Amino acid sequence: MIEQARAELAPTGVLRAAINMSNFLLVTGRSAEGDPAGVSPDIARAVADRLGVPLKLAPFKNPGEVADAAVEDLWDIANIGAEPERARTITFTPAYAEIEATYLVPAGSPLNRVEDVDRDGVRIAVYGRAAYGLWLADNIKHAKLVATDGMDSSFNVFVEQKLDALASLRPRLIDDVKKLPGARILEGKFTAVQQAIGTKPERKAGIAFLREFVEEVKGNGLVARLIEKHGVSGRLTVAPRG
Fold first, then answer.
1. What are the φ/ψ torsions at residue 199 (nearest 5 degrees)?
2. What is the pLDDT of residues 24-75, one digit of tens each?
3. What's the mean pLDDT in 95-106?
4. What does the pLDDT read at residue 81?
5. Residue 236 near residue 39 (C-beta atoms within 8 A)
6. How much is the pTM?
7. pLDDT at residue 234, rounded to an integer
8. Which residues of 185-202 are buried (b: 16+ CB within 10 A; e: fewer)?
9. Pairing of strands 123-127, 165-169
10. Residues near 240 by Cβ (< 8 Å), separated by ≥ 6?
């Protein structure tokens, strides 16, 4: 199987891996050579090593740009959050890691539970093309989403427009709440972003190889070791097997 997977996933002889640079838990810095460093690049490196081919990292500013490039010949695998809209053009493995997404509310807010937020009159700031933003767009029924083009801008809009809630990744909100006296992060989550490996849907042998690879690296402790290595323990967790 690996020969066919290699032919499908690295047709040029090099595995080109798209890396979402906006996820601060999965890309935590740069190497001495200037390449992205973190859990996501290391996962891509492990795939290339298993295939026996060189790796070329292809940085993208955000996951939306990675997904948009799925119909072009710019990458062979993509490490981004698995999400139904993206799955129209990308086939994903099971998740190798998860990140909780929840809400921050301002001082004096009557909202106390995640379930309280989706009600008429509530306005939610959110990074629209993040996996959790796409989830909210599909699932929020009553509240109004105020979509922005990044995490920083969603925080700024939340503050400047005095919105009712800020939707984001819990680890980011832990930093944001420190800037706003009296603000609170709601317990629980509305979703968990599933960090996975994607590739082109027609690459059947490649998909089978990647799925097996992901289950193996969750089971043998590689994902857990990478999380610890890059200092994101407690904020990024290994996804359940299966």
1. -150, 180
2. 999 999 999 999 999 999 999 999 999 999 999 999 999 999 999 999 999 9
3. 96
4. 92
5. yes
6. 0.81
7. 83
8. bbeebbbbbbbbbbbbee
9. parallel
10. none
In terms of phi and psi (left: phi > 0; alpha: psi -120 to 50; beta: otherwise), the region of 231 is: left
Cβ contact 101:168 at 8 Å: yes
Q: Which neighbouring-strand residues pair with 236?
A: 233
- Furthest C-alpha separation in the chain: 60
Separation in Å, CA 16 to CA 79, 82, 169, 217, 229: 11, 19, 27, 20, 23
Nearest to 31 by CA among 53, 12, 59, 10: 59
Check if the beta carbon of residue 66 is closer than 8 Å to that of residue 101.
no
Token digits of residue 118: 């989706």
Give the residue-averaged pLDDT of 209-236: 96
User: CB of 130 within 8 A of CB of 173?
Assistant: no
Cβ proximity of 93 and 25 under 8 Å: no
**pLDDT (tens digit per residue) in 150-209:** 999 999 999 999 999 999 999 999 999 999 999 999 999 999 989 999 999 999 999 999
CA dist., res. 134 & res. 208, Å (int): 26
Q: What's the average model confidence in pLDDT over 81-88?
A: 91
Which region holds residue 110: left if phi is over 0, alpha if psi is between -120 and 50, else beta? alpha
